[in-house]
Design brief:
Layout (H helix, E strand, L loop, with lengths): L6 E12 L2 E6 L19 E4 L6 H13 L4 E14 L8 E13 L15 E5 L1 H7 L3 H11 L2
Parallel strand pairs: 1-5
Antiparallel strand pairs: 1-2, 1-3, 2-6, 4-5
Length: 151
């Protein structure tokens, strides 16, 4: 039986631009999320939780620093739409669902300076627009990305 006291998790996400390419991160290994369902638990872009007392922008920069080991970012846009994730129903989950506030961010540094923490992120690369469209797995993320480029 699933705990009925599960809460909503609030998080931030980033679509990161670098030299006219976009950062796509997938296969994040997170024990709280099962990745066997396309719209539940597969993460397309850098995301992280908002801690109590943080604004979304503060959480964004903290998470980017923690996950990519750099702070050389500039926020270009904060999306009006937020992404909704429903976590699979199982006893391991701490949360019922997640609302992610999404930002468009430009990486200002050298791509080679990005160092990924392999405990969380399995793979990362900057892709062209079409490569991103082909690889996105979460339908809401894909719609926001398409509208970002072709409003």
């Amino acid at each position: 039986m699933v705990n009925s006291c599960l809460e909503t998790r609030f998080a931030v996400g980033a679509i990161i631009i670098y030299n006219e390419k976009y950062l796509l991160i997938n296969k994040i290994r997170n024990n709280d999320v099962e990745t066997n369902l396309p719209d539940e638990g597969i993460w397309d872009f850098v995301k992280g939780g908002i801690k109590q007392g943080e604004t979304a922008k503060e959480a964004l920069f903290r998470e980017l620093q923690e996950e990519l080991n750099t702070t050389d970012f500039k926020i270009i846009k904060e999306f009006k739409e937020s992404l909704y994730f429903k976590f699979p129903n199982n006893k391991k989950n701490k949360y019922r669902d997640q609302i992610t506030y999404l930002f468009l961010v430009e990486f200002m540094g050298n791509q080679n300076l990005i160092k990924i923490d392999n405990n969380e992120i399995g793979e990362f690369r900057f892709f062209t627009y079409q490569e991103v469209i082909d690889k996105l797995t979460h339908n809401e993320t894909k719609n926001i990305f398409i509208n970002l480029i072709d409003p």
